[in-house]
Write a structure and sequence with these properties.
424 residues, alpha/beta, UDP-n-acetylglucosamine1-carboxyvinyl-transferase, Chain, 24 strands, binds shikimate-3-phosphate, binds phosphoenolpyruvate, Enolpyruvate_Tfrase_sf
């Protein structure tokens, strides 16, 4: 689909959608608990839907009505010899592989888009010596056949490929017979996502202990059902926060927890560092324009913010450099390349190398055609840049937003945007 976007001003009050990362964790925790849990609000984005349908394949029962999920957890070892389709969701795939292995059942995992090429090497390294066989059925990582019973023990793994491997193990290891240890062999990146996992597990009565080298996870733990309120999503609210920063009137954002463990809450501090104005308004946050100047940003803990921060950089005086960003190559697109291509298509002075993006801001951006590269965060970033271009912007592959934020263009237009989404 194509989104045809006219320059316009976004302003008004906006409520952040439910966090994708928190939704995955809440549904998985509820599915592993023996009994009924309530999870809300839940939005049927493609990624959350991948996790939901996978959990149903594992015999959890999940009914969603009016954004409220009633989950009946898995009460016995599910039948194996099933196929689980993770669509394009890296989280679903990397969280569910160890869970299937903890049940000791045979599952063939499949995926689409770029998912079959996204790395699973960490599990290939770890699992054979822990009783689990991972077999690639074709040349890519997926389809992948998982067989065998996962054993507890010592797991040595890198911290700088994807934190999703650590989260996946943290869900599975409490179900095993013995105690386990995760030993990180390189510095942990995306650490806040691991903190979110530990906090979600605690809500289901499951404990993980931090150690000097990583984490200790006791075996024989039970997930207890609970009522789980899903947090508002800082990563997706970041697009509208950036729109507020770039406009005179600003945007007021509701529904973001002040005490959240989401690493992407750093967006607020980063927008302040760019020179934006941020103030509290009741329980909400108002973000509006100040005199913007380029900044240096370490992306190691906040990879998902990089595309939209690059857009902000294009409108700030001077240079914005975003570094420690090599893992962006491993996302839905190579985001170092797709972000710079999107900005350049609109006339921005942007370039990247293998670890960073540099944007020299202050040029007037013009009309153009941007490829979303099948990546939701590129489509949404381009839509925010388009507000401030001097003519129409076409986003090719606009439907990519469905991965995490299906109502993105509705929220955009409600705040005064002019996105016309049509078949293309
Ligand atoms: O655990 C999670 O919910 C996520 C972890 C991050 O991945 P990495 O750990 O691979 O950076 C992030 O990019 C992704 O969107 C969601
Ligand atoms: C990288 C992302 O998600 P995942 O890894 O779950 O596919 C994302 O949402 O930007």
């Amino acid at each position: 689909m194509i989104a045809a976007i006219q320059p316009s001003k976004l302003t008004g009050r906006y409520t952040a959608p439910p966090s994708k990362s928190d939704s995955h964790r809440a549904l998985i925790g509820a599915a592993l608990a023996d009994g009924f849990s309530h999870v809300a609000p839940v939005v049927a984005s493609a990624d959350v839907e991948a996790t939901r349908s996978a959990l149903e394949m594992l015999e959890a029962k999940i009914q969603i009505q009016d954004n409220l999920a009633l989950v009946q957890g898995i009460s016995r070892t599910p039948a194996g010899h099933i196929r689980i389709h993770c669509n394009e969701s890296g989280s679903s795939l990397r969280f569910l592989i160890p869970i299937a292995a903890a049940f000791g059942i045979e599952v063939v995992f499949t995926g689409s888009g770029k998912l079959p090429q996204r790395p699973l090497g960490v599990y290939h390294e770890l699992f054979p010596e822990k009783g689990v066989r991972l077999k690639r059925l074709e040349s890519d990582e997926l389809p992948l056949k998982v067989t065998g019973q996962l054993h507890a023990g010592r797991f040595l793994l890198p911290g700088n490929v994807s934190s999703q491997f650590i989260t996946g193990l943290m869900f599975a290891l409490p179900l095993l017979d013995g105690d386990s240890e995760l030993v990180l062999t390189s510095p942990l990146e995306s650490r806040p996502y691991v903190d979110m996992t530990i906090s979600a597990l605690a809500r289901f009565g499951v404990a993980v202990e931090e150690t000097e080298q990583g984490y200790r996870v006791a075996g024989n733990q039970r997930y207890t059902p609970c009522t789980y309120r899903v947090e508002g999503d800082y990563s997706n609210a970041a697009f509208f926060a950036a729109a507020g920063l770039l406009s005179e009137q600003g945007v007021v954002i509701d529904g973001l927890a002040g005490d959240s463990r989401q690493g992407d809450r750093e967006i607020i501090d980063l927008l302040l560092r760019f020179g934006g104005r941020v103030s509290a308004e009741g329980g909400a946050i108002r973000i509006s324009r100040g005199k913007l100047r380029g900044i240096q940003i370490d992306a190691s803990q906040i990879p998902d913010l990089v595309p939209i921060l690059s857009v902000v950089g294009a409108f700030a005086e001077g240079e914005t450099r975003i570094y420690n960003a090599h893992r962006l190559k491993l996302k839905e697109s190579d985001r170092l390349v797709s972000t710079t291509q999107a900005l350049r298509a609109l006339g921005a002075d942007a370039f990247c190398d293998d670890d960073s993006i540099t944007v020299r801001g202050g040029k007037v951006l013009h009309s153009g055609v941007v490829s979303a590269c099948n990546d939701h965060r590129i489509a949404m970033s381009a839509a925010i840049a388009a507000l401030f271009c001097d003519g129409e912007v076409l986003i090719d592959g606009a439907e990519a937003v469905n991965k995490s934020y299906p109502q993105f263009y509705d929220d955009y237009n409600r705040l005064g945007g002019s996105a016309n989404v049509r078949m293309g």
